[in-house]
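[User]
Um, tokens okay?
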Amino acid sequence: MGKIRRIKRRCAVCAKNINIILHDRKYDNGHYFGKLKLPVGKGEHKKVGVFKSGKYKFDVVKWTGKHKELEYWECNKCFEESSHECWLEEKIEKLFGKKCKEHEPHCPVCEAWSLYETILEDNKGKLS
């Protein structure tokens, strides 16, 4: 086994410290998603074009000021939780359909999505 190095990072979701173990071009105890460039200081979002998707149009903007580059890490707990949420969302959508725009009493789709939201809220309370 090659040289082992330890680094500390902060989870982008829960803000807890993560102790990352680096070895042989691999890492343990966290999930790395890459680097983000965040706008900082003085500047503005200047329109540089338009993106069209079907009947929708979106402005394309560029930040004219400086950027701060940050690594995006998630702790194992936050990563696992989000993958379970994603799985549950997919199952509910497959079984009941997409979430209704307006909640309607006695609608099975609304009831299923309401239960999903209750589970998420209950889980968030236990994680705090």
Summary: The longest strand covers residues 31-40.
